[in-house]
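ok so i was messing around last nite and threw this chain in just to see what happens. nothing serious, just curious
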Amino acid sequence: MDYKEILKNARDNMGGFCIGCPVCNGLACRTKVPGPGGKGSGTAYIRNFEKMQEIQINMDTLFTGDKTDTRLTMFGRSFDIPVFAAPIGAVTVHYGSKLTEEEYLKTLFEGCAEAGIAAFGGDGPYEGAFSRPVAAIKEAGGIGVPTIKPWANEVMKERIIMSEESGAFAIATDVDASGLALIKNANPPAGPKSPSDLREIVEATELPVIVKGIMTRSGAIKAMEAGAYAIVVSNHGGRVLDHTPGTIEVLPEIAEAVKGKVKIIIDGGVRSGLDVFKCLALGADAVLIGRPFATMVYGGGKEGVKLYIDKIKAELIETMEMTGARNLKEINPTMVRG
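result:
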């Protein structure tokens, strides 16, 4: 099975919700919700991708060094590449009924674990939205990260206990999900968190806590001061607010404020190993990739997941070899422009 075949299968299996574009750039599905589109005009989704493509890479092939090493150490674990699969919930709503939620999650978590990385699980206001990904993480030997919506703190604490029992090595909360209509109108509802709310959540577990949905320098500092182990620079794939900047645009100022104090992850428009390199050069420690992994699962199952991870790794190695970076720590801002 090759990449083109996987895309064709995905188009057939997603029932028109996602059309499996050769490049996942948001142009064909920009406002398609339910589906993989963005909020309002879809501008934020598209801008994530376009601003990523504007970053150029500086070649420098005059160097000496050892074999290229793409391994990432984070959460006290080693991962084959600095990439995680982003949380996607309600796949039957947004991608069609070809796969059940359980089938999708099992394929994604096991596929990622077998390929040397990990996936994040989703959450939502419907039955099983959190328990299913937690169960998938447990079945994958704890190789995964549950993501808890910004519910009332007592609800979040209940889900933290479930996460700990799954053997997960970290917990995330996507605070930007407070902008999702289904979440705001749920019972109990979710909403924005204060720094003191966030600290209460961090102190409720011994697991590292990742705060997803940071788009400003001040937001990064507040998450850091609340005790977050890591932040995710993210606008929720452009699905919670229209007309936001691309995540890669705000990454450098956020990295300037908190680099070395918390781990920095970024999502939004990351599609290739070259994009991964750009993010690391501008201050990220790792990236999350969302929509393309859904395409791989629907189009190729675990084989599709592995093929995509192998593709990202090969592109990252090639980029590192053409810029003189022999390991992730050697990737730096001088290697990109734009």
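not much to say yet. The chain has twelve helices and 13 strands.
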